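Explain the record.
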Amino acid sequence: MKNLLEFRNVKYFYQTKESEIEALSGISFSLDSQSFTSLVGPSGCGKTTILSLTAGLLTPSSGQILLEEKPISKNDDRIGYMFQRDHLFEWRTIWQNITLGLELQGLKKDEKKVALAEELLKKYDLYTFKNKKPRQLSGGMRQRVALIRTLVLEPALLLLDEPFSALDFQTRINVCDDVYSIIKSEQKTALLVTHDISEALSMSDKVVILSKRPATVKEEVLLSFEGDTPLHKREDARFGGFFEKIWRSLV
């Protein structure tokens, strides 16, 4: 399927005590299957609102949002969401954290899902930590656990809401590589919201640039860099030119 996700002229208004505010004004873009797309734009322009609409947490005022050619629904189980914090429960083991979604959906005894959880832990070097508590893991390992917890539910689309923003710069670079490699290895489609232009460029096949509120799509920038990891892509000679192009569009 070429268009896994499609926004069709989506508008969104929210109410304040004084007035009705237009947050999004006719947003249209699409994500190809197994692609990685980033949303960038001025602070407060509505990037997280777009993720919330995609996740079914909000309902568009008008327009359509289609996933696999079907409308998004509330709490749509085709969608996985990674937040700014890893939201691991410190009193639960890594295994208990990873299987939390299965537990909540009544799938804790689903042999196929449990086998997938074990497979992912082994594949991404976390199996020996399955009985540890989150506080015993590094920041990068915690983010891998959070991602695997999402992947166990086998979503069609991953939403990433600045999942690296709480990490120091060096850890952030390494975790970007980890998360990118896992998403590509599992052949998932991802939509990332970030304020970091370099992060957007290094991880994405496409960057969607939003205007200030009420947000519209100013431009979609298609990318193709040398290198198989975000870190290596940053070394591409064209990287600086794309950075300047997006930065100028934002300012």
In short: The mean pLDDT is 89. The domain at 1-75+201-251 is CATH 3.40.50.300 (Rossmann fold). The first strand starts at residue 3 and ends at 15. The longest helix spans residues 169-185.
